[in-house]
Amino acid sequence: MTESTPRSFDVLILGGGSGGYATALRASQLGLTVGLVEESKLGGTCLHNGCIPTKALLHAAELADNAREGAKYGVNTTLEGIDMPAVNKYKQGVIDRLYRGLQGLVKSRKVTMIEGTGRLVGPDAIEVNGERYTGANIVLATGSYARSLPGLEIGGRVITSDQALGMEWVPQSAVVLGGGVIGVEFASVWKSFGTDVTVVEALPRLAPNEDEALSKGLERAFKKRGITVKTGARFSGVEQSEAGVKVSLEDGSTIEADILLVAVGRGPRTQGLGYEEQGLRVDRGFVLTDDRLHTGVGNIYAVGDIVPGLQLAHRGFQQGIFVAEEIAGLAPQAIVESNIPRVTYCEPELGSVGLTEAQAKEQYGEDKVKALDYNLGGNGKSQILGTQGFIKLVRVVDGPVVGIHMLGARVGEQIGEAQLIVSWDAHPEDVAPLIHAHPTQNEALGEAHLALAGKPLHAHD
Ligand SMILES: Cc1cc2nc3c(=O)[nH]c(=O)nc-3n(C[C@H](O)[C@H](O)[C@H](O)COP(=O)(O)OP(=O)(O)OC[C@H]3O[C@@H](n4cnc5c(N)ncnc54)[C@H](O)[C@@H]3O)c2cc1C
C-alpha cells in the first residue's frame, strides 16, 4: 500500500476468490473503479485448495489406473508406485502458472489489490489494517472453510481437504467421512493410488444431492473398484494414535485406518467480519440475498459460497459477473440455480444439470414427467475407453428437457451441451435433428435425445 493507493472505489470487494475476482474483472471491464481486499492469495479456494489441485490429483490418479490396466489394452505397463512429492510438484506447477496468469490479468484490468484482512465497518466501508476504504457498492465474497462435526477435532491424522492436498505420502488405508463431492473425489484419487478406502455417509446414498440413479450407479462403480461404501452409517467418534485412527460408527462397528478425511461440507466464512453488526440477514452463517444478490442493506451485495446454494466456483464466477453488471445498470438476467451445471469429478464422473426426476415430479406432477436412461453400452467411444454408465434425461411430457444426469468416465466434458439444452428449454425433438460427431461420448447425448423423441438409433426399442 502506498500513499497514492486510492481509498474510495465504485466497487469495493471483500475476498479475492472465484466470486470476488470475477466481480472485479467484469466491473473494471465496465469502466468502474475497483478495490479488491484479499488476506491470502488471489484465486481463493478454487485455485489454491479446491478445484484445480484436486483435478491435478485426479489426472495423476487416472494415469496410475492407466498404467495398472495397460495390459487390458495390449499395452504392457506396470505401476511402479506413486511419488507423492513429484505429484505435488506437478500439481503446484499448474497452480503457480494459473496464479501468475490471474495476477497479471487483475493488474492489467487496473484493479487495486488491497492486502490484508478486511472487516465491514459501515454500509459503504471496509477496514483493512486500520485503514478505512469506501465503495459506492460493496461486494462480500469471503468464501468458505472445511467444516467438521461437533466434537470432531481436526489435527494429526484427522484431516480435511486442506491437509489432504498437502500430503507427501499415500495412505495405505483411509476412512472418508462424507460421500458428497469432495469426499468421493478423494476416495477416488486414493483408491487409484493404491489406498484401501472406506467411505462413510450418514445419508442413504452417495452424492445425495444428485438424482438417485446417479447415486446408485456411483455406488455400484465404487464397489466394483474395491472402495468400501457404508451409507446410512453415522459416525460416533475417532481415536488416534501414532499408528493410525480408529473410527467408530453408531452401529457399534469400528474401522481402522491410517487417516480420517473429514469431508462433511463447507461452512460460510462470515463470522467476526461485521456483517451482522451492519444489519445483514445471516442464516447459519450464510448471507441472505434476494435473487439480484442484494443483501437488503445499502448497496451491499454478496456472491459465492457465502450465499446459500451450490458451492461451486462457476456459480461464483457467474454471480460476480451478474453483480458487476447489476451495479453498472445493465439489468442482467437473474441466475437460475437449478441450471448451474454440476460435475462430480471422481472415477467414474457424474455430470448433471437441471432437476432430478424426483424434483421434476414434485414440480410438474407424477404423470407429467418422463425419464429415459440411455446406456453407454451402446456408445462406441465409451466402449473404447472401457467405461460403463448412462445418460438419464428427464422431460416434461410434451415439453422441454428439465434435467440431464450422466454417469461414466469423462462425462463431465458433456455438461456444456447438457446445460444449453436445459437452460434453453429445448424439447428432445429440437435436439434430435442436431448432429453429434461419431465416435464421441457426446454422441450418447444425441442418441438419448433421439430415443426420447421416439426415434432411437443405437438402442433397443
Ligand atoms: C477440495 C475442493 C474441491 C473443489 N472442487 C471444485 C470443482 O471442481 N469445481 C467447482 O466449481 N468448485 C469446486 N470447489 C468449490 C470452490 O472452490 C468454491 O465454490 C469457490 O472457491 C467459492 O468461491 P468464493 O469466491 O465464494 O470463495 P473462496 O474461493 O473461498 O474465496 C474467498 C476469498 O476471500 C478471502 N477472505 C476471506 N475472508 C477475508 C477477509 N476478512 N479479508 C480478506 N480476505 C478474505 C479468502 O482468503 C479467499 O481468498 C471445491 C472446493 C474444495 C474445497
Describe the protein's architecture and organization:
The chain is of the alpha/beta class and 461 residues long. The protein folds into 3 domains: 8-146 and 268-337, FAD/NAD(P)-binding domain (3-Layer(bba) Sandwich), CATH 3.50.50; 158-264, FAD/NAD(P)-binding domain; 348-452, FAD/NAD-linked reductase, C-terminal dimerisation domain (Enolase-like, domain 1). Helix content is 31%, strand content 25%. The protein has 13 helices and 24 strands. The strands form 6 sheets. Strands 1, 2, 3, 4, 5, 6 and 19 form a 7-stranded mixed β-sheet that branches. The radius of gyration is 23 Å and the shape is globular. Flavin-adenine dinucleotide binds at residues 14-20, 37-40, 44-46, 49-51, 54, 117-118, 141-144, 161, 182, 269, 273, 304-305, 311-314, 316, 345.
Summarize this entry quickly.
The protein has 13 helices and 24 strands.
Percent range for β-strand residues: 15-25%
User: What structural class do you assign from the helix and strand content?
Assistant: alpha/beta
Q: Provide the helix percentage.
A: 25-40%
Our count of domains comes out at: 3
Task: Give every kind of bound small molecule, once each.
Answer: flavin-adenine dinucleotide
What is the level-2 CATH architecture name of the largest domain?
3-Layer(bba) Sandwich
CATH superfamily of the largest domain: FAD/NAD(P)-binding domain
